[in-house]
Amino acid sequence: MTDISRQLQPHVTRLASVDLGALVREGGARDSALQWQAGPVRLDARHQRLDTKAIDALFALVEAARLDDARAALFGGDIVNPTEQRPALHTALRDASAPKDRDLAGRIEAARSRTAAFSNACRAENALQASGEISGKPVRRIINIGIGGSDLGPRLVYSALKAYRREGIDLRFVSNLDPADLEDAIEGADPETTLICITSKSFTTSETLMNAGAARDWLAAALGKEAANARIAAATAAPDRATDFGIAPERIFPFEDGVGGRYSLWSAAGLCLEIALGPEVFSRLLDGARQMDAHFSAAPVKQNLPLAKALIDVWNRAGRGLPARCVAAYSSRLELLPAYLQQLEMESLGKSVGLDGAALPPRSGGQLVWGGKGSDIQHSFFQWLHQGVDEVPVDFIAVAALYAKGDARAKALGANLVAQSAALLDGHTGEGPLAAHKTLPGGRASSVITLERLDPEGLGALIALHEHKVFCEGLIYGLNPFDQWGVELGKLLTKDLLSGNHSRFDAASLDLARLFRL
Ligand code: F6P
After folding, report:
1. Whole-structure pTM over 0.85, yes or no?
2. What is the pLDDT of residues 14-45, one digit of tens each?
3. pLDDT higher than 70, residue 497
4. Bridge partner residues of 35 (DSSP)
5. What is the dihedral of CA 461, 466, 471, 473, to 10 degrees?
6. Where are the alpha helices (DSSP H) in 278-407?
7. 48 Cβ inside 6 Å of ligand 1
8. Where in the chain are the domains?
9. Catalytic residues
10. Among 3.90.79.10, 3.30.559.10, 3.40.50.10490, 3.40.50.300, what is the CATH number of 4-85+286-483?
11. Class for the domain spanning 101-277
């Protein structure tokens, strides 16, 4: 048992057999202690198995975590990622005034004005002239090639803010090595009016480089090498490698090494978004995130939304011993949020070693995050959530303006969300000969995170809320949420196989390798 688990145990035991529905209906001080608001985002955690004493115990964990110092280090641009000796500069991309590095603000502003100017040029009708191509044709399709943080963030934002996209410009994403991924992205595209954005912090990721090479071949086969190169841009923290790849310096858009891949969408890694949605919409996204940053750094502990969300997840993970969490986004446009949060949380918090190098105790580190789009998921895995043996707390993601806009289907979508949360809470006692089969145990925890409306500011705030939540969890568990050493071994083994070095593989692996002609 962790120290955290031990501290929470009396409260967990006290609340374990309490009727959750009855607890929720007590209202009073519990009601106000379990609701938080920051700008356009609201968290309602009244359906969590928590009472005011347990909430106080959770907030007491923060004292040991030295939140003030940690926040100051994050916003001040100090090294908060000691295993890679890097700061974490995603908040500086939203407001570069806080970091101690006085030159950083200048670099960030210069990078931003370059991407904005390039984006405006690409959005102009003679776009390709501006990018050095004499045909003067407009850009009609952008293809972002990247993976992990160089894909999931831009993909989520584009899907969520599609309503803001520039008519006539279509943005597609290629991340997977299956050739079908690129084939689908270029289907129906005219090479003459296509712009390829290669997004890779390291510019060494093999999936991205192989897909980028294939995309360049596609362009060159139709237009020749020179015209192909005029249609390729790169966003990277390794501009030299992009130059080696053959990209012209005027189309290489750098970002800081201290910006983590899964925190990079606010940087030049959002170039494809800036072109498709426009620099103004992109700025509004940054504004929304900056407002959440301001709340996170200034709000008192008990009113601090990202901190509260972190503590609730710690309660379920370390306290109640529930290792997973389901994210149910009741908005078609937010259907990629679960996949985005899966990388943000699981790559950041999927650690079993603390900052001091010692093994973390059981029930530490992040949760397994999975989910999907409501109400579709009600017809797939919600059966398991309602009647399965295990409890998995659910985060319902709601968009208030959507359900309230008077459209009957949108209204019904909101009703589905409320109904699911209530069904998890109260359950149902079945009757008749099949009573046992028709009984839902209830007493299953959930929270609702409500966005006022799905606009750039709201989305920016929602994403930043989760970034800071992850930061707080890292702090409480004493781990580094900014590295990801666990992903390296698989990369090395793939290289070995592709280069014919089979020495360290077992018989079953070698059978597969033979089957795949490796
Ligand atoms: O392999 C994991 C990872 O390093 C992620 O952290 C990152 O977002 C992704 O690969 C892509 O990396 P890059 O942007 O350097 O291509």
Report:
1. yes
2. 999 999 999 999 999 999 999 999 999 999 99
3. yes
4. 44
5. 140
6. 279-298, 305-314, 337-349, 382-387, 400-403
7. no
8. 4-85+286-483, 101-277, 486-515
9. 347, 379, 491
10. 3.40.50.10490
11. alpha beta
